[in-house]
Amino acid sequence: ELKVEQNPLFLSMQEGKNYTIYCNYSTTSDRLYWYRQDPGKSLESLFVLLSNGAVKQEGRLMASLDTKARLSTLHITAAVHDLSATYFCAVTNTGNQFYFGTGTSLTVIP
Amino acid sequence: DVKVTQSSRYLVKRTGEKVFLECVQDMDHENMFWYRQDPGLGLRLIYFSYDVKMKEKGDIPEGYSVSREKKERFSLILESASTNQTSMYLCASSPPHEGYTFGSGTRLTVV
Q1: Residues A88, B40: C-beta atoms closer than 8 Å
Q2: CB A42 to CB B97 under 8 A?
Q3: Do B100 and A48 touch (CB under 8 A)?
């Protein structure tokens, strides 16, 4: 079974600061997704990373993938309160079934 | 945009009741999934389906069953609800080898 670990599980950061969330997975995967979940809401797709070295950016979030290290990072630049949410990474090895990390709960403090 | 619709946002049921959670998607996706989400445990896969009348067990199928009689609809059934099935239930759909689109979730409380 493919295992996915995220860290940290909880992250409290001040507005304006930078931070990185890490996602490690246990076996070869052909794609990696990042999702965002607001409290009480469902998951919303942020990024899909399809190949080694892939980098995607939207606003203050940038995701990257290193398939050799089986590692993806989600970098937050100059955090703002609106980024407070839980972030999940998910990987798939067959292309159909996803395995999710446990999530990182991010709180941005003014 | 793909829409995945879960019929109820909040449900309260009694122990022992049979509970139906409905999920409908409108983009002709082959794949559909049911997850439950609990604090500290992340998302756990209950059942999934890659085609009509097809179903596969996920990681935690005990106490649940599913039905997929039509391509657009994937139902999760709690045969006899128990308090440990109180959770947030998320339905998702996808084309083959593509990312998931999630429904808005059903928060089920079993009392």
Answers
A1: no
A2: no
A3: no
Residue A81 per-residue DSSP state: G
Q: How far apart are CA B26 and CA B71, in angstroms?
A: 10
- Per residue in A40-83, pLDDT (tens digit) is 888 999 999 988 889 999 999 999 999 999 999 999 999 999 99
Tokens (6 digits) for A69: 């290290």
A9, A21 in Cβ contact below 8 A?
no
Q: Pick from B43, B50, B104: which is nearest to A96 by CB?
A: B50
Q: How many whole angstroms separate alpha carbon A22 and alpha carbon A89?
A: 9
Q: What share of chain B is helix, strand, coil (3-state, %, to 5)?
A: 5, 55, 45
Virtual CA dihedral for A103, A105, B1, B7, nearest 10 degrees?
80
Strand ranges for A1-110 from DSSP E: 4-7, 10-14, 19-25, 31-37, 43-49, 55-58, 61-66, 71-76, 85-92, 98-100, 104-109
Which residue of A44, A45, A100 is in closest CB contact with B43?
A100
Q: What is the pLDDT of residue B97?
A: 79
Q: Determine the 3-state secondary structure of B109 from DSSP.
A: strand
Q: Measured between beta carbons, which residues in chain B are less than 8 angstroms from residue A103?
A: 42
Q: Could you report the per-residue pLDDT of B60-103, keeping only the tens digit for each?
A: 999 999 999 999 999 999 999 999 999 999 999 998 878 899 99
H or E segment to which residue B38 belongs:
strand B31-38
User: CB B90 to CB A97 under 8 A?
Assistant: no
